[in-house]
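FAQ: What does the model actually see?

It sees only this:
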Amino acid sequence: MNDLCAEIGYRSINHYGEELCGDHIDVVNNNDNSLIIVLADGLGSGVKASILSTLTSKIISTLMAADLSVEECVSTVAATLPVCSVRGVAYSTFTIIHIVDNEYAEIIQYDNPQVIMLRDGANYDYPKDEYTIEDKKIYRSKIRLREGDVFVAMSDGCPHAGIGLAYNFGWKIDEIIDFVETVECAGYNAKTLATILIDEVNKLYGSKPGDDATACVVKIRKRNPMNILFGPPSNPDDCNKMMSLFFAKEGKHIVCGGTTSSIAAKFLGKEVKPTLKFESKEIPPIAEIEGVDLVTEGVITVNKVLEYAEDFISENKLYEIWEFGRDGASLISRMLFEESTDINFYVGRAINPAHQNPDLPINFNIKMNLVKGLSECLTKMGKRIKVSYF
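And it is asked to produce this:
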């Protein structure tokens, strides 16, 4: 077994004037090292397309997770969904990316734009075998994975972008490949890369998409642990135990909170050096401790990280703020959202006397809820999360 993992990110925009998206993505984790991603594009747009794509992706991902063959999956979809009276077909187009043991990827494509693969930052022309299933032409590929491989699946709303506006014949696949190659070299995570691609699609449509458009990015990377310390332990006698466990962990170390940073500095035999540089009027400045990768204020900073995390898993509209910000919340966000794959939280249950002022909107429960909310968001990002309380 290798130490690779798959990072997934996707973003959609609706056909102009429609409340629902006619594309749907379903992700099923078979285990820690294998997953199935299905991108389905329903016929037409609106409610009908949304139902078709949702059912298609759910049926295929569920059956494949149960180890049924592609032939059985396609036959089941055809037999289950109603036939379109206009087009005479029963289901949406789809793309399947099946990551197996983080060792190889199986790609199955039916009538969606071809999956773009980047290897070493450049387009990689992977082999494709053609099959016919239920009178449908299916392309199938099996690719041994390497660190840094990037897969970009999309619905046909992406290459249709710009027709009659920026381009006569849409955004050609070669032009999309050039765009992805240019953006990917900046090192963005999968979700941000998908967001940038769909933002460009939206611009080409003049912010009035003529079709639903979805991009799903899968990045193959090595596992990268991260450790975050938040609050002192409820029993002062447990300080050394908590610090020993925290600093013994592999990976970078983030310390949040004034009291917490003082305890960490004492344990390391170092001093806390405040920077007193306000990078943001909303976020207190960071500090420095030799041997710690990042030292920030506690509740206010972590609350802003949670705000960014909640946005990240939805529309990701705030990514430019934390992607380029230099305040504590932005720095933590980049480390957790982009760098890390496995995150260990060390959370102290001590009640901070400074937070007991009834005029302050901070209390013990809010602190615990921050950890719970952030852990849930990070889990939805595909991170492995472990929370230890002291």
